[in-house]
Amino acid sequence: MTGETPGADDAPASPVPAVPRRPTIREVARLAGVSHQTVSRFLRADQTVAPALQDRISAAVVELDYRPNLVARAMRDRRTGRLALLLPAGTAVSSLEMLTGASDAAREAGFVVEVVTLGGPVDGRAGRVLELADSGLFEGIVSLTPVPVDDDRLGSFRTPVVVSPEYDEAMRGIGRLADAERLAEIVEALADLGHRRFLHLGGDYAHTSARRRREVYLETVERLGLESWGVVDCGWSADAARRAVGDLPGDCGVTAIVGANDKVAAGAVRGAAERGWSVPDDVSVTGWDNNALGAVMMPSLTTVDVDHEALGRGAVAHLVAMLGGAPPAVDDRPLTTVLWRESTGPAPAATPPTAKSRRA
């Protein structure tokens, strides 16, 4: 008895993977214990939703990974569900963290964020922003770089535009990213630990942040009646900082070194070790930026953490509130925080008395 060879049509069909069902707004409402109308108001950034309810709804959105059906909403409301985030050309590590915060805030409000790079001459940006605002592609625009357009003209755009200038045309931090108030806090705390003679390792002064940290350092030292051995311009170079510490006279009396960022601070720690100084027993060292390597150094590095995610979240929240016709919420939480670690401690019991103070 002979059998037939199965043909292609007889082969068992491959199973088609099931597409997971997306959670609905009513499921978010049930989990949060509110009505679906309240969830809808929350997604529109309606500030009349009580803060306690906002927290519950936000938690439900995250737990269910709820994402509104943007296509359906656009057909119903003639809305795109898209926000534009404008940045200058260039790269900055902080911009990735900022984008995370912006994207999270947009998603919770039922939007997606698209990054648009503003290249070309600065004086051409106004035309580019106007083009985007009139394109109908976006429901709102946030610019994290200055736009050479006056407020009256911005208010006449078809699409709402929020300008929150945190980066200059070369993607260098300005605005709140250049705020140096934590450096004053560092110097004050080190003074409380007995330090009296300081050294500042400066950054690249093309950056507003580097200039502000130098200014605040000098202002605070003078205000507290402390001594500055000087300011060494290191241009963000760890090797320049290492050499600067190595070149200090043995009787300089410096017991605290304030770095403009974590790279120069790490160079200072290396320079101290090469000349036989212990950190923090002989000299305390601080940085800025909370580079991940600073936490695992020996000793771990005292630094300043900058909450870039909060920066992006706040900018988008401002825009979403504007779209909902509500005043933007005021977030008074500081953007920067000093992280005290092993590289700082009390000043040595005795310091060489012969050193002379030198102002930069």
Automatic annotation (TrEMBL):
UniProt xrefs under Pfam families: LacI, Peripla_BP_3
Annotated region described as Disordered, given as residue ranges: 1-22
Annotated GO MF terms: DNA-binding transcription factor activity; transcription cis-regulatory region binding
Bias type Low complexity, positions: 1-13
Annotated HTH lacI-type domain residues: 23-77
Keyword terms, alphabetized: DNA-binding, Transcription, Transcription regulation
Signal peptide extent: none
Highest rank taxon of the organism: Bacteria
Protein name: LacI family DNA-binding transcriptional regulator
